[in-house]
Write a structure and sequence with these properties.
The complex is a heterodimer of chains A (about 160) and B (about 625). Chain A has nine helices and three strands. Chain A is mainly α and about 160 residues long. In chain A, helix 2 packs antiparallel against helix 9. Chain A is globular. Mean pLDDT of chain A is about 70; it is low at about 1-55. With about 625 residues, chain B is α+β, with helices and mostly antiparallel strands. Chain B is built from 17 helices and 22 strands. Chain B has helices at about 1-15, 20-35, 40-50, 80-90, 105, 110-120, 130-140, 195-205, 215-225, 240-255, 265-280, 295-305, 315-325, 335-340, 350, 355-375, 385-395, and strands at about 50, 60, 140-150, 165-170, 180-190, 205-215, 230-235, 260, 310-315, 420-430, 435-440, 440-445, 455-470, 475-485, 500-510, 515-530, 535-550, 555-570, 575-590, 590-605, 610-620, 620-635. In chain B, strands 10-11-13-14-15-16-17-18-19-20-21-22 form a twelve-stranded antiparallel beta barrel. Chain B has a seven-stranded antiparallel sheet with strand order 8-6-5-4-3-7-9. In chain B, strand 17 and strand 18 (about 555-570) form a beta hairpin. In chain B, helix 6 (about 110-120) packs across helix 10 (about 240-255). The two termini of chain B are about 45 Å apart.
């Protein structure tokens, strides 16, 4: 029951809750934190182990931002940005790349307008990534603003 | 807890509401399934993970979570499980919640298959809606399945043992947006940080293994960017029905577990079992019941299953960086390093003088190289992030096209390299003629053909050598190595790995006066490796050895000394390895041993090779010369 209330709140006000929530369900915390040194690597790898980065099993029902293991649609874009900050910064600075392509299709940008989107993110790189440690929420809000002020891409801003 | 809870609900519901008509229909279905021998069918066996018992007749399911079975003896009784499953399908409708599902939804793959085989009459066995499952399938939108194999880490041959996972390719994705796909993988659930404890517990089934679902971009980040592992993607030709049934089964497996065994019931093995559910007529797991090396399971799928459609290579960040370095004018190397170290700013005159394309390329390379360094070497983080960010900012102000990221796909893939088992038969001379027999179940050594493996890497498990000398009657054990790992990683301006080696086992020591004994040995070393040119590299190690035997003074000998070596890929099918080692045993049984060895391998075909070795050694003050020619077969 509690979970449902929380889920309801999230659905009502994604923009507000996102910054707080991303900390709980973002991927950043889950990604491999790298065991240093040779020995742990050897054993972990020899034994095709998991090194603690896996979610154990597929969570049942709604949990954080996932529904039975898949990311709920409200969080898809935020989670993707959270899990790909470095890759997105790289791609946007070059105005091309696989991660940026995937983001474009996540936002639903038409194939024909993708290159316009790529170009815009490169041009506005400094506005979108205004600091090295910008959070996923910062980035996605900034991206939204940048897109809103573009005549052609403004229609997609709501999808972020 | 939850599982028990809903299990009780089923029992309650069953007893209360089973009317006479449904009881009759259930009986019909059970009878019909018996006539059709459905419980013996490969589909049912695959869905319930039944395997033939090894010693006694009968079956046991590999699933260890109790909630997976409907019958109390479901783990060992396919027939009873089938009847109980049918009975559960008759449960009255329930409102699905996060915790509770109708058995038709909980066991949706079984339901689907049985419905097909037995032609369920929806009036007498009403079909229940499964909103969560339907939503899940809509989200996954499956259009294809790809087997994913991350190759070995750089400088970590042990990871050649590897991992495999499945990627569920959505219909609305293409090759450019595959990052958005989901993956299904199977892994041991543990937060154990102690590698040794992890290994030991894992070997004996001390952990539970669960299936999990994660977006592919998380996996790509992990393998490609953080661990420097190239990824091989094997697209499979499963059709829509096969893919759907596979996912229905993943849904069934979400909440249950298997005891995890590193060597046999591991990730690779269980992924094969998923593919068996998709295509039950293909026998995959039975070939790997005792020993499932992930790369060998990939080879089996690509060679024997007829499932392979296409292969895609996804080079790791480090591979892309090395490729860029090769294409870059070497005069820019120092500029790139100056960026990295903060000695050069994108606004400096020295940089702005360069042609625009070269500037863009340098900024791209330097920022990605910083990313790489952050991933591999956490200790040098200070200021790196800011610097990379400055470079990216500068890059975003330039309109030059990005340097094309086209990397040649290696000719030999991990699944087309030599097979990992090897048996050898040799003849040689060392004061007397001898025959040598050697066997190595896995995996690769420095002189094996490198295609499909990481160059300069060696990992051997349980390799054994025995000899039969002319003047003796018995076959004599020369060496039994439980584990033997060696990693030669070349150093240059940008990549500065330490090479390393470690091995443990039992070796024969030759003492004066034709006496010999077996000693336990642990040996480890660290060193440096440099590439001279495309074909040749030199290396050096400082290594230590500890030998243990009751016949030594104080029962042990502890030695230390250097090794120097030269590895040469003379031709694709001909490699040579020249090395010399000195060990000064200063503690315990004291002495100084040397050896000088030249080994060569010549490949006859994909599965056969000849090896010639010539060695001169001094052990316990006795000098010996040994030559041996052997024939090796990979299997």
């Amino acid at each position: 029951m509690k979970k449902m209330i929380i889920a309801g709140l999230i659905a009502l006000s994604p923009g507000v809750v996102m910054a707080a929530n991303i900390g709980n369900c973002g991927w950043g915390a889950k990604v491999f934190d790298g065991q240093s040194g040779v020995a742990p690597q050897v054993f972990a790898a020899t034994t095709n182990g998991t090194s603690g980065n896996q979610t154990f099993g597929i969570s049942s029902g709604t949990s954080g931002c996932t529904q039975d293991g898949t990311v709920t649609s409200t969080w898809k874009t935020a989670m993707f940005i959270d899990g790909n900050k470095k890759q997105l910064a790289r791609d946007m600075s070059q105005g091309q790349g696989e991660t940026l392509d995937a983001l474009a299709s996540l936002i639903g940008i038409d194939q024909a307008q993708k290159s316009k989107f790529f170009h815009l993110t490169q041009e506005k790189f400094t506005s979108i990534f205004y600091s090295e440690d910008a959070s996923a929420a910062d980035i996605s809000n900034a991206l939204k603003t940048v897109m809103s002020s573009d005549s052609e891409l403004a229609v997609y801003a709501a999808n972020i | 807890m939850l599982r028990h809870y809903w299990f009780c609900i089923i029992l309650l519901c069953c007893s209360n509401s089973t009317t006479a008509a449904t009881a009759d229909y259930l009986q019909d279905l059970v009878k019909q399934s018996g006539v059709m021998e459905l419980a013996q069918r490969p589909e049912w066996r695959a869905l319930l993970h039944y395997k033939d018992n090894l010693l006694f007749p009968g079956f046991t399911s590999e699933v260890d979570g109790a909630g997976f079975f409907n019958a109390p003896d479901g783990k060992t009784n396919p027939q009873a499980e089938l009847a109980a499953t049918l009975a559960a399908f008759f449960n009255p409708p329930i409102a699905e919640t996060d915790e509770v599902q109708h058995p038709q939804c909980m066991f949706v793959a079984r339901y689907y298959w049985l419905k097909q085989e037995l032609n369920f009459d929806p009036r007498r066995l009403p079909e229940q809606p499964c909103p969560r499952f339907s939503q899940w399938m809509t989200t996954l939108n499956p259009g294809g399945v790809t087997l994913i194999f991350p190759a070995a880490f750089l400088n970590n041959p042990a990871s050649m043992f590897g991992h495999t996972l499945l990627r569920i390719d959505a219909r609305d994705q293409d090759e450019k947006t595959r990052l958005l796909a989901y993956t299904v993988s199977y892994a041991a659930a543990t937060t154990e940080k102690n590698g040794l404890a992890f290994a030991i517990k894992g070997i004996f089934g001390g952990y539970r293994g669960y299936f999990s679902i994660l977006p592919y971009y998380i996996k790509v980040n992990q393998y490609s960017d953080l661990e420097s592992r190239d990824i091989w993607e094997y697209q499979l030709n499963l059709n829509e029905h096969e893919i759907d049934q596979l996912l229905r089964h993943v849904w069934e497996l979400r909440l249950t577990y298997f005891d995890y065994f590193f060597f046999d019931e591991n990730c690779a093995y269980h992924l094969l079992s998923l593919l068996e559910v998709a295509r039950p007529e293909i026998k995959l797991t039975e070939n790997f019941r005792f020993w499932a090396i992930p790369s060998e399971t990939v080879r089996y799928v690509t060679e024997n299953s007829g499932m392979l459609k296409n292969v895609v290579y996804r080079p790791a960040l480090s591979t892309r960086l090395m490729d860029r370095l090769q294409k870059m004018d070497p005069q820019y190397y120092d500029l790139a390093l100056d960026f990295v170290d903060g000695n050069l700013q994108p606004t400096d005159e020295a940089f702005l003088r360069l042609p625009e394309n070269d500037r863009a390329n340098l900024l791209e390379f330097s920022s990605e190289y910083i990313e790489y360094r952050q991933a591999v070497d956490k200790r040098t983080l200070n200021g790196y992030g800011d610097r990379a960010f400055e470079l990216l900012q500068a890059r975003s102000q330039m309109s030059a096209d990005a340097a094309p990221d086209i990397i040649k796909v290696p000719d030999i893939r991990p699944d087309t390299g030599h097979k990992s088992g090897r048996a050898s038969l040799g003849v040689g001379y060392q004061e007397d003629a001898f025959a040598e027999f050697a066997w190595r179940p896995a995996y690769h050594d420095l002189l094996d053909p490198a295609g499909g493996y990481v160059p300069g890497s060696q990992i051997k498990f349980f390799s054994v050598r025995a000899r039969d000398y002319d003047d003796q009657r018995d076959l004599r054990l020369e060496e039994l190595m439980f584990l033997d790992i060696e990693s030669l990683s070349p150093r240059d301006k940008f990549f500065k790995p330490h090479s390393w080696k470690v091995k443990a086992g039992v070796v024969r020591k030759n003492l004066p006066h034709e006496h010999s004994l077996l000693a336990g040995l642990v040996n480890a070393g660290t060193g440096l490796d440099y590439r001279l040119d495309e074909k040749n590299s030199v290396y050096t190690f400082l290594e230590a050895s500890l030998e243990y035997t009751g016949e030594y003074q104080k029962n042990y000998a502890l030695g230390l000394g250097p090794t120097f070596g030269l590895l040469s890929h003379i031709k694709p099918d001909w490699d040579a390895h020249l090395y010399t080692t000195m060990q000064r045993y200063g503690l315990g049984e004291q002495r100084t041993d040397y050896n000088l060895v030249l080994e060569q391998r010549y490949s006859l075909d994909d599965n056969d090779a000849l090896r010639l070795s010539i060695a001169r050694s001094r052990e316990f003050t006795v000098y010996r010369t040994e030559t041996m020619l052997s024939w090796q077969r990979y299997f």
